[in-house]
Specification:
Length: about 140
């Protein structure tokens, strides 16, 4: 397991854009499982939507990407570098994510070649799949 302080040593994201609270499982360079505790105090709920707060889909995808980045960036060869999106394919949203939910993200690396990679991400609330898709990324110098 990895707590928030350890996460912040690996990826550069900070409030309000750090969307991973804890890593439950980690196989560096292969897969990671992380959680985001969704609270009504999230800044995005002020506008999305005040009467019926929903976590924006793009932020669910970003949270999955951050979990994947922790897996990749925990490898010594990528320390001090930055993982950036290069593409997103086949993303589907199946259920709303609301305050009080615990979003569990599972991300598995499916390909990596010369600093360009692909991963499959899935996000769950309990055992229910809420989002899935393929994430493409590049490892770049800061």
């Amino acid at each position: 397991m990895m707590n928030i302080d350890e996460i912040k040593k690996i990826i550069p994201h900070r409030y309000p854009f750090l969307l991973v609270d804890k890593i439950l499982e980690l196989e560096p360079g292969k897969r990671a499982v992380g959680i985001k505790n969704v609270t009504v105090n999230e800044p995005f709920f002020q506008g999305h939507f005040p009467e019926y707060p929903l976590m924006p889909g793009v932020l669910i995808v970003e949270a999955m990407a951050q979990v994947g980045a922790i897996s990749i960036m925990s490898l010594d060869e990528y320390k001090g570098k930055l993982g950036v999106f290069t593409g997103i394919d086949g993303v589907r949203f199946r259920k709303e994510v609301r305050p009080g939910d615990v979003l569990r993200m599972e991300v598995e690396l499916t390909a990596m070649r010369r600093g360009i990679g692909k991963a499959e991400g899935k996000a769950y609330i309990g055992e229910e799949l809420v989002c899935s898709g393929n994430l493409m990324f590049a490892i770049v110098d800061k």
